[in-house]
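Notes, p. 3: input format for complexes.
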Amino acid sequence: MSQQCPGALSDGLGMRLAVTAAENAGPKAPILLRGDLGAATKTARAIGYQGIEVHVPNIWEFDVPAFKASCDAAGVAVSALVSGQLFVRKGLSIAHDDPAIVEKAIEGLKLFIDGAAVLSTGVVVGWVRGQVGDEREIKLAKQAESLQKVGRYAATKKVPLYIEAINRYELDSLNTAREIVDFIHTYDIPSTYVHLDTFHMNIDEHRPSKAIREVETLLGYVHVAENTRWYPGHDRLDFDEVFAALEDIGYDGFVSVECLPYPTGEEAARRAYEWLTYRYFYPKG
Ligand code: LER
Ligand code: MN
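Output follows (285 residues plus manganese (II) ion):
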């Protein structure tokens, strides 16, 4: 753990709300603001969000300066860049059997880090880890080897990486907070933190509050959605427990609304913001 860098977003501003955005996304993807990213930054700010999280479809073509200009003009921070589309759209993963694919995945993650450095944000590492299948130990070691390279690069740029605990039906490793904490410690991966998502925790954690407390200072990023993955406040997930635990550990980063775009993306973003602000945040205008 010697090489950990402080989270770039642990800046004493306290917990803040962000919303997911992407230029294009499938109808069932948990992305709320869709279409032009410049317009998305304005919508996010108009609703009240302080941050915007971008799922980048093709990092090789992502216009970072243009996006930064939009964010600066709208007055929103970038809460994270999400790298999942490296896997979903390009089939790249960091523990693939083909070394050329691993190399390309690492190249993509380094470009994410370059963009994140300009945008003063972090990079979510989820699906790009790929499936481990029957070769669990071998593949986990391979993931770690790739992440050590990526993490060393991230540390030079002071960019935090957020390893997301994703439920077992989507990915077959690192499904829980405990597994990721152990993974980071075992392999001493630089500049790397745990990313928890209430939707995934509802499937794979015994108690979300216990998971949050186990991670403590390694918690870098949080996604919120209901047990159904609808917007927070719609269903029956115990957000009081989640926010009490986040307060307890002194979590000082973004809580990003990553939920299904129902009834519409914008409406879900608005309802989530109003409900979460009313219950857990003072209005921040
Ligand atoms: C990404 O943040 C995530 O939570 C995955 O389930 C992909 O949607
Ligand atoms: Mn998530």
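The beta strands are 16-22, 33-34, 51-55, 77-82, 122-125, 161-164, 192-197, 219-224, 254-257.
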